[in-house]
Design goal:
2 copies of one chain form a homodimer. The first copy, chain A, folds into 2 domains: 130 residues, 3-Layer(aba) Sandwich (Rossmann fold); 60 residues, Arc Repressor Mutant, subunit A. The first copy, chain A, is α/β, with parallel strands linked by helices. Chain A has 10 helices and 6 strands, in the order E-H-E-H-E-H-E-H-E-H-E-H-H-H-H-H. Chain A starts with a strand and ends in a 6-residue tail after the last helix. In chain A, helix 1 links the parallel strand 1 and strand 2. Chain A binds a DNA duplex through helix 7 and helix 9. Chains A, B: It comes from Actinophytocola algeriensis. Chains A, B: Keywords: DNA-binding, Phosphoprotein. Chains A, B: One of its GO terms (molecular function) is DNA binding. Chains A, B: InterPro entries: CheY-like_superfamily, NreC/VraR/RcsB-like_REC, Sig_transdc_resp-reg_C-effctor, Sig_transdc_resp-reg_receiver, Tscrpt_reg_LuxR_C, WalR-like.
Chain lengths: 205, 205
Amino acid sequence: MIRVLVVDDHPVVRQGLRTFLDLQDDITVVGESADGASCVDDADRLRPDVILLDLRMPGADGVTALRGLRDNPARVLVVTSYTEPGAVLPAVRAGAAGYVYKDVDPPALAAAIRSVHAGHVLLHPDVARLLTEGDTHPGPAELTARERDVLAEVARGRSNREIARALSLSEKTVKTHVSSILGKLGVQDRTQAALHAVRTGLVDS
Amino acid sequence: MIRVLVVDDHPVVRQGLRTFLDLQDDITVVGESADGASCVDDADRLRPDVILLDLRMPGADGVTALRGLRDNPARVLVVTSYTEPGAVLPAVRAGAAGYVYKDVDPPALAAAIRSVHAGHVLLHPDVARLLTEGDTHPGPAELTARERDVLAEVARGRSNREIARALSLSEKTVKTHVSSILGKLGVQDRTQAALHAVRTGLVDS
DNA sequence: TCGTCCTTTGGACCTAGGTACACCTCCAGC
DNA sequence: GCTGGAGGTGTACCTAGGTCCAAAGGACGA
């Protein structure tokens, strides 16, 4: 029996996954978590074999949660809606055992859970391609804490001036942060950065 | 027995809703649709009492689907993730019988379906407040087809120049469109417009 | 203690984004 | 036939966004 922990911020999705997965003979859902922070505790307590993790969550994002789960023996299957290289690569590097899109049909998801539990690393073909392609040169380039603050504001549609006021900085400083954020994310402008942030779950809405 | 049609682009969510709702004594899911276009046909064919409609879908967005469903006697319960006035108001004006957030817990969702089926108009308190507040002056201000084209590009992070190339327009024209889009959506810049578009489901990712 | 990284600020500079106004064509409806 | 709206183009202009370079203080680990 494969013990599964479902992590998603939408109760409807959690309930749906639980109801469906419990119908499988060899899978049982031992718990649900609504966000990245609580899922680390839940994983310690419930000792699941596999964790279904939605990358896109408010508060602590999926990648942060993945890091918190490193000590846990559970295999993490990332279930998300997006194809962004910027989201996939850090997740896989942070220890995800699998990465599937949310638009898989449920039987395929059950199969993915079994594969991951069996020790396989499961990647969607597109994801695997991304990995092999951009493997060497670019590098992960993680954001600093301050840059994440700024990016969160950018992702809410704020202007540099507004961000400066909100964080008590000069507009120049904000520009510097934005500039290095763009560089690290590999995007051209703040709009792309905001979309990236939304996809990776850095901001709620 | 309340006949329900589930419309959502994620198979996992559809399956989840179906499994949960079928557990209710008085509710049966008679069908699922993956997008706004097919849901209109499905509704004609399956004659559901209530349609659960996700506003955020690729291709034909939720509001367009709502218009197509006007002739159908089914009551439409919009289930979505976002609070945006710009998404809520058009939906309600387009004939939604209810509007709940996706973060309702499943029992509350079942209750909402029963309420809507009983003829009630069901609005989340926040939504009702938005309605009564901004009722008179601003107006819905719908986008033209061309403006939606441009907005879709903006929401993919494209620059004006790239949009001009993609749509075979001059950059000036794109600017004009973007400008009127910003005015109609009531936002300040392209980043906010892009975020708005993502929230309302105009673009996939 | 030294080196490194993060954070902050500044100046100079260029470009993309956005506004305001005017003019054109095409097409549906009266 | 006229009218109005939508789409397209343009000019001029201003502002926000972004880059490059430089600098200084603080935290932290080797």
